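Teaching note: in complex prediction, the entire set of molecules is handled at once rather than each chain in isolation. The prompt given to students was simply: 'Predict the structure of this complex.' The entities are:
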Amino acid sequence: MSTRQAPLRLNPGRFLVFATLAFAVCFYGIPLLWLFVAGTRSEASLLTQSPFALGDWDSFVRTWNNLTTYNNFQILTWTMNSLIYVVGGVLLSLIACIPAGYALAASEFPGRKLVLIFTLIAMITPSTAVVLPIFLELNMLGLSNTYAGLILASGFFPFGVYLTYVYFSTSLPKGVMDSARVDGANRFQLFSRIALPLARPIIALVAFFSFLGIWSNYFLAFVLLSDDKLYNLPVGLTALVSGSGALSNLPSNDVPIKKPEVVLAAILVVLPVLLIFMAAQRFVRSGTLSGAEKG
Amino acid sequence: MSATAMASDMRAVAIDRARKAKQKGRRDTRMSYLLLAPYLLLLLMFGLFPIAYAFGLSFFDTIEMVFWGVTNYQFVFDDFRVPASVVNVLAFVAIWVTLTMIGVAVLSLMLDSINRKTANTLRTIYFLPGAVTSSAIVVLWLFVLDPSVSPFQPVLHTLGWGTRADVIASIGLAGVFAIMAYFSASGGWIVVFGGALASLPTEVMEAARIDGANRFQLATRIKLPMIWRSLVLMGILSFAGGLQLFVEPQLMGLAGPQFAQNDWSLNQMAFQYAFRMGDFGASAALSTLLVGASIIIALVIVFATKFYKID
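The expected output is the structure of the full assembly:
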């Protein structure tokens, strides 16, 4: 690519491009920026001051205490639950996806094509389409409303299998594999000694997508979990809002959860993903994701 | 050694080798399935079985547990709320898919035409709202659409909207849900298309430029046709995902009972049947129809297009 830049002229076309891009910056950026600023402000400030007035440390601490102590430290329980679901689910999805993707890429066996086709169909079918069937099934098995039920269900991640399959199809060194086979290595040794050490990028990628899906899973958790002690953060956030009426602009009640507390709870849901996005920026930009996105 | 003896010897070796290869093949197959086992178990448990179970359940009166044919389907079709939710969901999907295809294409092409460093920064800003998902999207946008606290307060006031109810009534629920979904989901696609556009062959661009194409012609005549197929795939995937809409309408009630939309979308109806009415059969029937639609779309993508390569 040439690095020569066009001289800066503002013709109508360029103006339109920059105006559109700036409009998009406002659309995507302002709500997010507002969310983080609002977390430091008091209810009165939210309602009367300008939308981007900064808050102060005292009101932030007060809000934080109101939120965390409410209902016997409920939000901390939900945060803990979210961590349990996400660690369990991501580990399970890795244990299932990495060997499966490898087997599909590295060997020929009867039924391989069928497994691949089922994987593609399961991957393209939106996961929300199977939420109620999964509830009906787990309800029959007595696994609804348990940690195990939600972790098992979120460990099923066909997209991760497909990613691993594509990765190993293109990156396994055929020569090394063949000579290791001649030297008597069996399939499992080939996997553990040659494929796994190469798999670090794909493990990171599958863990990344699996984390995103599980951390923000609302529909399945909402349907499966009826005990509020088992809620994850996204479900907890809505329980908090509907229990306090904080967003309804109705006459106030004496529940300490108001708008600032809700904003802070929403930040708790969003922040971990945001941090991971920032950390993953390099590989997000490098185009590792090209063709790797699922709707 | 005579020629015949040598030939028979060689045949023996060949047979032996074939037998060994066959054994090795069987061992390999066994090992492949061992590596696949955890995944296949999950595929069975959370892919095939729930769908088959819901399909089976949809033909039963689940309260008395007796087979009653297509009665559940009849019940679902006779429920006046179901056609209404079909219209709602189609309106949402139409707006959302249009917004996504135009928004992502326009922004991606524009980003590709400006200086690379600026483009990267902007792309990151567009991508970050992807961190706001599920219930957090709705909570955030209930603030954003409320003129008393919204960061877009001046705009909302200029448009003459004084309350959240005004805003929602003017934009319409389908539009509101489409904006929420677009806000969170489009940035990831813009990153994907950024990568796709950057990897287009530069010779074609150079040639077009030498032929006197300006940036606008380059974007619309050369780049757009080259990413068109991927844009269509994005549209189909968004369409399939949009049919399953649940979270956005379900959580409107957070803004107060007057905003609640408990039977707005099809998935919400399936949820209502199971949880409000305790009628798992009707829920299974509607879920089966919804999963069926998704699977048909998936089959079309897998077999009628070449978007996903297997071998």
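Point out the following to students. The two ends of chain B are 47 Å apart (CA to CA). Chain B is about 75% helix and 0% strand.
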